[in-house]
Write a structure and sequence with these properties.
The protein has 152 residues and is mainly alpha-helical. It has one domain. The chain is built from eight helices and two strands. The protein has a two-stranded antiparallel ribbon with strand order 1-2. β1 and β2 form a beta hairpin. α2 packs across α7. It is globular and about 40 Å long. The termini are far apart.
Length: 152
Amino acid sequence: MNTCFKVADFFLKSQDPDAGDLMSNMKLQKLVYYAQGFYLAMVDTPLFNERIEAWEHGPVCVDLYHKYKEYGAGYIPIPDVDVLNAFSKEELEVLYMVHNYFGQFSAWKLRNLTHEDTPWLQAYRNERSNEITHEAMREYFKTQLVDDEEAK
């Protein structure tokens, strides 16, 4: 199984600095959340096992946050790693789907989008635990999938 760090590397490597497409920790967190959610909905298994929590500014993979917190709201450098070989074809399909759709948005736009998502809302309001569970993401993101036949 992959880790949130490998998923993050995929999104960091997908940046296009020449187009001004640079990644902050906030934006990276939201892309990793969406990748986990859609992968759970489509494949019914987690893309990675690290915990995601509901924080004030949206979903956060805590381990990943701590790795990149030194950059604050600034941009995270593109890592010098080979990411494509770390993923299966199925995983890459979901990662590209998330990047192609959500990657176009700013960190704050993604923050605002996640604040409308049921998994974040429920976990953020929960007094016992702020964990966004796999079950909550799977259930919610299944409602966000569009059947190819319906789209025609």
